[in-house]
TrEMBL record:
Protein name in the entry: N,N-dimethylformamidase beta subunit-like C-terminal domain-containing protein
A Pfam family hit: DMFA2_C
Protein source organism: Microbispora bryophytorum
Region ranges (Disordered): 215-238
InterPro entries reported for this sequence: DMFA2_C
Length: 293
């Protein structure tokens, strides 16, 4: 937010917990900006954002890994997340939709992509330990004519924010997709909005072969977060070996009921702003100027 204030944008500040405590906290604003590693959201937080967009509000998300549902209790003093539905006491009750596991897994039934356009359940990691360790660290542009790229002089196939800047690194979001005539399109099997446009992409994985004997994170063969997520996915879907090791990170845009959601889909977007990268700054300005009024 330091960059935005120095650029002259007028901001009000709140936390995600404010969305849980006050469902109308976004009223009167043109655009809600989400930044960083916003991995944990409650049902009420999502309700507040969905209601805002359905009422014509806009979301500019410069963050990544939209993944887990949590519950907020004790007047905001406690955040609960079991991750494993079998351990959560609300499993099997009338409140089963509030189970604290990944949005895209049963028994929640509320795909993450419905709210943010993208989900953390497809690939996730880039340039992190054994996960796509030598990827470029940037996004490859596929729809340079979109308004989000206006004034950038970007072409199809250009890479923005690559290492050493690394805007596409650590944890990213995406949806299931296919290619037609050189352009990526959602398959819509994971709740992606019907008018979602995929603008840029990079490789992302859940894990890869560990050639460093556990000295770096995310070795696919042993214990660790990625292995645990694969086991959890298998229990949730009834599949012993879920086929989600490889995926992509994405930048995407969609509209719904008058509101627009821009999602850069990465926890490390701020790296481009810190480095004063022209493309990152111009894309951020395009989003805020159009969505914020």
């Amino acid at each position: 937010m330091v960059w935005a204030e120095e650029a002259g944008y007028e901001l009000d500040y709140l936390t995600q917990h404010d969305l849980d405590a006050d469902p109308g906290v976004l009223a009167g604003h043109a655009c809600a900006i989400v930044v960083g590693h916003d991995e944990y959201w409650s049902w009420r937080m999502r309700d507040a954002v969905d209601r805002f967009v359905d009422g014509g509000g806009n979301i500019a998300r410069f963050g990544g890994n939209f993944f887990w549902q949590v519950r907020i209790t004790d007047d905001g003093g406690t955040q609960i997340c079991y991750r494993d539905p079998a351990a959560d006491p609300v499993t099997g009750t009338d409140d089963a939709h509030l189970v604290t596991t990944a949005w895209d897994y049963p028994p929640i039934g509320r795909p993450a992509a419905e709210s943010m356009g993208l989900t953390g359940s497809s690939g996730v990691y880039v340039r992190y330990g054994c996960a796509a360790p030598r990827a470029s660290g940037g996004y490859t542009v596929y729809r340079p004519g979109h308004w989000l790229f206006e004034g950038t002089d970007l072409y199809y196939g250009d890479v923005i924010g690559a290492a050493p800047i690394g805007i596409a690194a650590f944890e990213l979001d995406s949806v299931e997709y296919t290619f037609r005539r050189g352009q990526p399109y959602p398959t819509f099997e994971d709740g992606a909005p019907e008018n979602l446009e995929i603008l840029a992409m990079c490789p992302a994985v859940a894990s890869e072969e560990d050639r460093w004997a556990g000295t770096v994170p995310l070795g696919s063969g042993g214990p660790g977060e990625s292995q645990g997520l694969r086991e959890l996915t298998g229990r949730a879907t009834g599949d012993d070996a879920p086929d989600w090791q490889y995926g992509s990170g994405m930048m995407a845009v969609f509209t719904r009921n008058g509101g627009t959601v821009v999602n850069t889909g990465t926890t490390e977007w701020v790296n481009g702003l810190v480095a004063r990268d022209f493309f990152t700054e111009k894309i951020t300005r395009n989003a805020l100027d159009r969505l914020g009024g």
